[in-house]
């Protein structure tokens, strides 16, 4: 496999969009750069997280510390959202 170098993307280059799906029931944060979704960090009702990479997106290269910062922000945002969804009477609350 050949991997080509590309321009580095920094923490300040990206924006974030909240998304949710019903099948399976997940919440997510899309990481966007230049109008393209680069990857999505998602969380299920139990708090399990995963990273979905956009195979159709443009080539992306991250500094490791910036990548960790982006993932940490996504996880923090998802934990806060999940916390609201699991409050008594909310969508993901234990019945």
Structural commentary:
The protein has one helix at residues 64-85, and strands at 8-9, 15-22, 25-33, 36-44, 49-53, 61-62. With 95 residues, the protein is α+β, with helices and mostly antiparallel strands. The strands form two sheets. Strands 2-3-4-5 form a four-stranded antiparallel beta sheet, with helices on one face. It has a two-stranded parallel ribbon with strand order 1-6. It is elongated. 17% of the residues are buried. The mean pLDDT is 87.
Q: Note the gap between the termini.
A: 50 Å
Radius of gyration: 15 Å
How many helices? The count is 1
Q: Main β-sheet: number of strands, strand sense, barrel status?
A: 4 strands, antiparallel
Strand content: 35-45%
Strand order of the largest sheet: 2-3-4-5
Secondary-structure-derived class: alpha+beta
Q: Give the overall average pLDDT.
A: 87
Helix content: 10-25%
Global shape: elongated
Q: Which sequence of SSEs, written as H and E, runs from N to C?
A: EEEEEEH
Secondary structure tally: strands = 6
Low-confidence residue ranges:
none
Provide the fold topology.
Blueprint lengths: L7 E2 L5 E8 L2 E9 L2 E9 L4 E5 L7 E2 L1 H22 L10
In short:
The protein has 95 residues and is of the alpha+beta class. It has one helix at residues 64-85; strands spanning 8-9, 15-22, 25-33, 36-44, 49-53, 61-62.
Relevant terms:
95 residues; alpha+beta; four-stranded antiparallel sheet; two-stranded parallel sheet
């Amino acid at each position: 496999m050949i991997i080509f170098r590309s321009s580095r993307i920094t923490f300040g280059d990206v924006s974030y969009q909240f998304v949710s799906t019903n099948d399976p029931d997940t919440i997510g944060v899309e990481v966007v750069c230049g109008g393209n979704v680069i990857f999505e960090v998602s969380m299920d009702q139990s708090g399990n997280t995963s990273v979905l990479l956009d195979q159709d997106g443009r080539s992306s290269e991250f500094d490791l510390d910036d990548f960790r910062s982006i993932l940490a922000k996504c996880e923090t945002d998802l934990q806060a959202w999940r916390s609201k969804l699991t409050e008594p009477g909310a969508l993901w609350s234990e019945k």
